[in-house]
Amino acid sequence: MDKKRILAKIDELNGYLEEIEKIRPSDIEEYISSIKDKRACERLLQISIESVIDICNLIISDLKLGLPSDEDVAFQKLEEKKVITNKMKTILINMKGFRNILVHKYGEVKDELVFENLSEKLGDFDIFKEEILGFLKNS
Fold first, then answer.
1. End-to-end distance of the chain based on CA atoms, in angstroms?
2. Which of 49, 71, 73, 123 could staple 99 via S-S, CB 3.0–4.6 A?
3. What is the pLDDT of residue 58?
4. What is the pLDDT of residues 14-41, one digit of tens each?
5. Please, which residues have CB within 8 angstroms of residue 37's CB and are 6 or more apart in sequence?
6. Contact, 63 vs 24, CB < 8 A?
7. Per the confidence metrics, is the pTM higher than 0.90?
8. Residue 8 DSSP label
9. Are 52 and 77 in contact (CB under 8 A)?
């Protein structure tokens, strides 16, 4: 297991989350009124989720679980190997879906959806890191 690489990706994720905390608006009106911060938040959320997916793929590769056909299958493999919980698998599927909205529907992204993720879902990243660090500690 290449723990150093996984830990480096977790550090990268921590950096993105710290940046989000610095610029995260306190309410939806503030979020909507600052185009620069709005776009920065969207991009930071996107690359934070991509870091999570990268971490998952590193673990799948290290455990030699095969090449998953898509991210949902990757998350399923991690749950089956007890790397993540079933609840985390569901969170990751939702994160991936939100990332896809940010990437593929950029012009159609609803401000309320992004702000909801900034306000209510950032803790999911901490839970993910706890599960991964727990797995690394026990492997």
1. 8
2. 49
3. 95
4. 999 999 999 999 999 999 999 999 999 9
5. 23, 25, 31
6. no
7. yes
8. H
9. no
Q: Which two tokens stand for residue 19?
A: 């940046």
Handedness of CA 85, 87, 90, 91 (dihedral sign): negative
Domains of the chain: 3-138 (1.20.120.580)
List helix spans (H) across the chain. Answer: 3-23, 28-33, 35-62, 71-80, 86-104, 111-120, 123-138
Please give the average per-residue pLDDT across 123-133, as a whole number.
Answer: 97
Amino acid of residue 127: I
Query: In 10 A of CB 20, how many CB atoms?
Result: 19
User: The tokens of 125 are what?
Assistant: 């990243």
Q: Residue 96, Cβ neighbours under 10 Å: how many?
A: 20
Nearest to 55 by CA among 123, 127, 128, 6: 6
